[in-house]
Amino acid sequence: MSVIAVLGAGKIGEALLSGLLHGGRKPGDLLFTERHPERAAELTARYGVAGVDVPDAARRADVLVVAVKPQDIDPVLAELAPLLRPETLVVSLCAGLPTSLYERKLPEGTPVVRVMPNTPMVVGEAMSAISPGRHATGEHLAVVEELLSCVGAVVRVPEAQQDAVTALSGSGPAYFFFLVEAMIDAGILLGLPRNVSEQLIIQSAKGAAKMLAETGEHPVTLREAVTSPAGTTINAIRELEKHGVRAALLAAIEAARDRSVELGKG
Ligand SMILES: NC(=O)c1ccc[n+]([C@@H]2O[C@H](COP(=O)([O-])OP(=O)(O)OC[C@H]3O[C@@H](n4cnc5c(N)ncnc54)[C@H](OP(=O)(O)O)[C@@H]3O)[C@@H](O)[C@H]2O)c1
């Protein structure tokens, strides 16, 4: 079994460590790096995984997962570059950073796989899209797929589509949170207690997501099934259309994609 080191054990890094352990990896096959000794000690106590420094991670790991904030990447790559073994696979979870950045700063031939995960990774329900760099093979992609399947679903996309993925599933959970928040407010407007309104909406969201995932039916079919003639749902749908909710979603996601492109240039 290969040794995996997570560089930067923040929210996403910790979620990955936890998922890998749940998925059956042994604590001895995992490592992490962390700037704050108290945080490192806390993680070791919680998961039994050793906190190491970057040189140690580079020496021991077969797979290095970079999970620092994008703005912290330069010192990490500068430290890694002289230490990296040629066969080490580098997996980037950093939003917006292209594989070409790693390829420029790391030794020639380093295999790099770029991942766009999302926050439901903390509950084992991430949606991760992966793209190979110039030197990553199908075998490298399979390794990353296996690794990320411990914390959710994985899809392969060409790197050119990563800005669209960022806008769709990277930011996606926020759109659902926004929608749920608005629907809970609607319940309060109708006179329901907040806790009841929350329960009604969160369970409805869970149920709807499960139906979409498990029935394989198109969303239109599922919606039509609850939209009876002259009923309540069609009245609500008319208002959603009148207020341009569909067009707003298209424009919002396009704006997120444009911002991702802009940040990538930076
Ligand atoms: N959260 C999301 O929704 C999400 C979604 C998709 C992708 N991502 C990507 O996942 C990455 C991590 O995000 P996050 O939300 O987990 O951020 P985070 O909680 O800030 O975690 C990053 C961790 O890396 C540590 N770090 C920074 N430089 C380091 C270094 N040189 N050596 C060791 N550790 C270092 C940070 O320490 P300090 O606390 O000292 O800074 C922090 O603990 C980001 O690149 C982000 O773009 C996040």
Automatic annotation (TrEMBL):
* Main location as per UniProt: cytoplasm
* Signal peptide (from-to): none
Q: Which pathway is this protein assigned to?
A: Amino-acid biosynthesis; L-proline biosynthesis; L-proline from L-glutamate 5-semialdehyde: step 1/1
GO MF term set: pyrroline-5-carboxylate reductase activity
In short, the EC number is 1.5.1.2
The residues covered by the Pyrroline-5-carboxylate reductase catalytic N-terminal domain are 4-96
**Catalytic reaction(s) noted:** L-proline + NAD(+) = (S)-1-pyrroline-5-carboxylate + NADH + 2 H(+); L-proline + NADP(+) = (S)-1-pyrroline-5-carboxylate + NADPH + 2 H(+)
Q: Which residues form the Pyrroline-5-carboxylate reductase dimerisation domain?
A: 159-263
The UniProt entry's GO CC annotations, sorted and at most eight, read: cytoplasm
* Role this protein plays: Catalyzes the reduction of 1-pyrroline-5-carboxylate (PCA) to L-proline.
* Name the record gives this protein: Pyrroline-5-carboxylate reductase
Q: Which organism is it from?
A: Amycolatopsis suaedae
Taxonomic placement: Bacteria, Bacillati, Actinomycetota, Actinomycetes, Pseudonocardiales
Q: Which gene encodes it?
A: proC
